[in-house]
Amino acid sequence: MVSATRESIKELTLALQQATSGDGKLAASYKNLHRGRPEFVSERFLKARENNVAKALKMILDSLHWRIANDIDSILSRPIGSKEIYDSILESQPIGMTGYCRKGRPVFAIGVGVNGFERVPTHKYIQTHIQINEYRDQVLLPNSSRKVGHFVGTCLKILDMSNLRLSTLSRIKVLTMISTIDDLNYPEKTDTYYIVNTPYIFQACWKVVKPLLHDRTKRKIRVLPGSGKEELLKIMDEDTLPHFCRTDSKHKDRPTETCFSPSHPFHMELWSYIKEQSCMSKCMAPSLQKSFHITVSQPREEIQTIEEQIQSSVAHFGDEGCSEGSSLSFSRLTMADNKDDDD
Fold first, then answer.
1. pTM
2. Which residues form the CRAL-TRIO domain (predicted)?
């Protein structure tokens, strides 16, 4: 991976100051983005653009214009709707925050295998995802930095692939939109993606997708055996582990309330924060607040290619006559050209 050099960070930070100084909205959005650490923003975007200052500058400016056009800086004061709608989103898009690793980084858990994206319109899932991103950057990371006594600017994500089915992969469009938003506007905010509880359908798709990933992305992804508990305990305490990492069994003893539950402290605190911000900005009550649509840019070529490959694989599996509940067999999937083994 190409690192961001000190000289490039300094050059980009100066270029951004000059580019935003003559535009009030641009300057305000840039200030909200860097939150007192402009060099960290420069470093993140430089890493995403192979230390190319010109490309990183364009990427940041494009992101700032996206933030302004979609009013991202005030998204935490715009409730998604009623609490019932928010709960429906969480029930069909399982995500939660379980605590912090020993370095102070927030640990997010994502139930990829049980994503539904069917309860509400797509733009509400997008809005919720961005709100969690902004809450992480504006609240969780600053609070953690103060607590541990040093700057914390990134997080960890644990992806649970339990119950992954063809129907989940067929909804790749929504996942692509979310990935594109993160790729273009929140680069280098996740240090590592830990993938656990992988069924064979994931392993088959992973062999197709992995060679398409940029080396920078591949280094961030770790596919762990089983529930990943043994490896994850090296970087976090046991009470930070998500429920799906606590055992290698088929969740026979799964607690009734998990980090995905709308009543989990993280989601209750996030909802309360949005309501408070809404009142402070004199917005309408949550039950009457209208949602808004987020503009999503076209994904870069790497993400588009991955989406196409997954869709092709799903179609191929369907042609093989695989049913949702059956044991899937992909022995006829052609991977002879792929020389890259799983992690």
1. 0.82
2. 85-242
